[in-house]
Design a protein that fits this description.
This protein has 240 residues and is an alpha+beta fold. The chain has 2 domains: 70 residues; 149 residues, Cupredoxins -  blue copper proteins (Immunoglobulin-like). 43% of the residues lie in helices and 24% in strands. A 5-stranded mixed beta sheet has the order 3-2-1-5-8, with no helix packed on it. A hairpin with a 5-residue loop joins strand 2 and strand 3. The radius of gyration is 25 Å and the shape is elongated. The relative contact order is 0.11. The C terminus is likely disordered. Bound molecules: dinuclear copper ion. Dinuclear copper ion binds next to loops.
Length: 240
């Protein structure tokens, strides 16, 4: 059910194959530098045709890329098959923040809460330009495209706070387009899901706090960034 380790295994497989090939190619190159140097071979020879060698260097890479393909394809099939009992959360991307909507109509900005050990389906769309919804901790990333609803799912097996970020350059505030994913125990999640929506002032304070927490160092408010960026844009536009 959880495909996190499958993706890690495919990644490790590709790294191992790449590093092995790099070492073989580099070692051969260094060896040939000595074997065929000018002192030992004052007259350059011309070597042509070696069927055995040609078959090997065609067959071995072919097998390797097929192994990589099937490993990736097996993971991809799991990732595209959403478990029927998944919690559906609608995600809207816009310059430059994430908004979430739950089946009971609850809406949040920046903060996404999910229950532990229950698959979550994310339906992603964009209100303006292309973005990409990325949760590195659960190995998922999916583009947010205006006029289209994309989907993905993940399995939150760990409690805690995780980073949501935008993985597609979407303008000046791209690097600040972060959110927070909080995995709660199921009873705590239900409590959160059904609590009364806070007033507008509280929402603002919450998002300030969240940005401060997720970035660690910078204490910035995403609203103030948007205002600043926008005012800069309008100033630039006014210039003759
Ligand atoms: Cu949204 Cu980059």
């Amino acid at each position: 059910m959880n495909f996190k380790s499958n993706i890690d295994n495919t990644f490790i497989l590709i790294v191992v194959i790449s590093v092995t090939l790099l070492l073989i190619v580099t070692a051969t190159m260094v060896y040939f530098m000595f074997k065929y140097n000018r002192k030992r071979n004052p007259k350059a020879g011309n070597i042509t045709g070696n069927t055995t060698l040609e078959v090997i260097w065609t067959a071995v890479p072919l097998v390797l890329v097929l192994i990589i393909f099937f490993s990736g394809w097996a993971d991809f099939r799991i990732m595209r098959n959403v478990p029927p009992d998944a919690l559906v959360v609608k995600v809207t991307a816009r310059m430059w923040m994430w908004s979430f909507e739950y089946p009971n109509g609850k809406k949040t900005d920046t903060l996404m809460c999910v229950p532990q050990d229950k698959p979550v389906k994310v339906e992603i769309h964009s209100a303006d330009v292309n973005h990409s919804f990325y949760v590195p901790a659960f190995r998922v990333k999916e583009d947010a495209i205006p006029g289209r609803t994309n989907y993905m799912w993940f399995y939150p097996d760990q409690l805690g706070e995780f980073t949501i970020t935008c993985a597609e350059y979407c303008g000046m505030g791209h690097s600040f387009m972060q959110g927070k994913l909080v995995v709660l125990p199921p009873d705590k999640f239900n409590e959160w899901l059904n609590e009364k929506p806070p007033s507008a002032d509280t929402v603002k304070t919450d998002s300030t706090k969240i940005i401060a927490d997720s970035s660690g160092v910078k204490k910035v408010n995403i609203d103030s960034i948007n205002v600043k960026k926008n005012s800069k844009v309008s100033k630039d536009v006014k210039k003759p």
